């Protein structure tokens, strides 16, 4: 059995938020062996191609640029994936832009947010503002979460009953 049996090519926009351009320079215990964002994008592209998915990559440390990218790609992609990174707790405009597209999106984080939050700001009880509108969430699995999110979103889009397309 193939991971994804649909012959239809899907196109996803993948947004990496503030600080993700620093992969390879950040805590290797948390971010693993990924040496750069370009290396991550190459791994993502290779995996995505194996399941008939095309990825459009975007990274910015500026929320306004992320908003423009989402606005410019809406209607041209089947779904979005986002690692909001530095926008996780405060990126309401980005979350609203994703929701306004009407396309499903997955939230992805290299780190387990609960573990990371506890290590950098113990006692602070804040959660991701993206989680309640995302189709699904992967966190704590480093770059493997990116692969899982791509596969999950592709399978969900292929399943007409899952995202409500059969209504």
Describe the 3D structure.
The chain has 167 residues and is α/β, with parallel strands linked by helices. It is built from six helices and five strands, in the order E-H-H-E-H-E-H-E-H-E-H. The protein has helices spanning 28-31, 37-50, 63-73, 92-101, 113-120, 144-158, and strands at 10-16, 53-59, 79-83, 105-109, 136-139. A five-stranded parallel β-sheet has the order 2-1-3-4-5, with helices on both faces. Helix 3 runs parallel beside helix 4. 32% of the residues are buried. The model has no long low-confidence stretch (mean pLDDT 88).
The percentage helix is 25-40%
Beta-strand percentage range: 15-25%
Globally, the shape reads globular
> Which residue ranges are poorly predicted, with pLDDT under 50 across at least 5 consecutive positions?
none
Provide the succession of SSEs: EHHEHEHEHEH
Query: Which structural category fits the helices and strands?
Result: alpha/beta
What's the total helix number? 6
Q: Termini separation (Å)?
A: 28 Å
Strand order of the largest sheet: 2-1-3-4-5
DSSP strand tally: 5
What Rg is obtained from the alpha carbons, in whole angstroms?
15 Å
| Biggest sheet character | 5 strands, parallel
Mean pLDDT: 88
């Amino acid at each position: 059995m193939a991971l994804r049996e649909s012959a239809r090519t899907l196109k996803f926009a993948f947004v990496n938020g503030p600080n993700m351009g620093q992969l390879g320079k950040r805590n290797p215990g948390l971010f693993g062996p990924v040496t750069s964002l370009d290396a991550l994008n190459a791994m993502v592209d290779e995996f995505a191609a194996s399941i008939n998915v095309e990825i459009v990559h975007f990274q910015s440390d500026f929320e306004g640029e992320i908003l423009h990218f989402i606005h410019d790609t809406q209607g041209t992609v089947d779904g979005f994936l986002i690692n909001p990174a530095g926008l996780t707790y405060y990126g309401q405009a980005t979350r609203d832009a994703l929701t306004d597209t009407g396309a499903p999106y997955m939230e992805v984080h290299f780190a387990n947010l609960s573990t990371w939050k506890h290590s950098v700001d113990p006692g602070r009880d804040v959660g991701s503002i993206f989680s309640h509108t995302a189709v699904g969430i992967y966190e704590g699995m480093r770059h493997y979460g990116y692969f899982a999110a791509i596969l999950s979103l592709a399978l969900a889009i292929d399943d007409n009953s899952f995202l409500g397309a059969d209504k």
